[in-house]
Amino acid sequence: MSNLLWREISEYKEGFLEYLVAEKNSKQNTIESYLCDLSGFANYLTVKRKLSSPFHPSDLVRYVKFLKESSVGNSTICRKLSAVRQFMKFLYSEKLL
Q1: Helix, strand or coil, per DSSP, at residue 5
Q2: Are the C-beta atoms of residues 45 and 87 closer than 8 Å to each other?
Q3: Whole-structure pTM value
Q4: How far apart are CA 61 and CA 59, in angstroms?
Q5: Average pLDDT, stretch 22-44?
Q6: d(Cα 79, Cα 81) in Å, to the nearest integer?
Q7: Which residues lie below 8 Å from residue 22, measured CB to CB, with a gap of 6+?
Q8: Radius of gyration of the chain (CA)
Q9: Count of CB atoms situated within 10 Å of the CB of 34
Q10: With bands split at pLDDT 50, 70 and 90, how would you rate the model's confidence at 5?
Q11: Which of 76, 95, 8 has the alpha carbon at shortest distance from 36?
Q12: Which of 7, 9, 53, 68 is most buried by its number of CB atoms within 10 A?
């Protein structure tokens, strides 16, 4: 995985929005949901003090565990992970990961 810090990765959200519109033909509701879900993941990392650490796939595993412990439904968890996954795909396509 990349040595990019989550704080640095978050700076690419604007490009991600453009990618969602141009490449994925995403609707406004999807874009807003993805941004909300990415912000939730960033907030989780902030609380866990991981923003100053390189992103690692195990962060997602811990995030899912946290969501389940918070009684978040499986379909919501899947949607949140989809947002993070699409963002990571975007970063990879831009050769940032």
Answers
A1: strand
A2: no
A3: 0.79
A4: 5
A5: 89
A6: 5
A7: none
A8: 13
A9: 23
A10: low
A11: 76
A12: 9
Tokens at residue 16, please? 């991600």
Please report how the helices 28-47 and 74-93 are oriented relative to each other, as an axis angle in degrees rounded to 10. Answer: 90
At a CB cut-off of 8 Å and minimum separation 6, what does 38 contact? 10, 13, 16, 83, 84, 87
Distance, C-alpha 51 to centroid of its chain: 13
What is residue 72's three-state secondary structure?
coil
Token pair belonging to 48: 């866990």
pLDDT at 1: 45
HSE of 14 in the Cβ direction (CA atoms, 13 Å)? 2
Determine what percent of the chain is predicted with pLDDT higher than 70: 85
Q: Which amino acid is at 27?
A: K
Token couple for 22: 């141009």
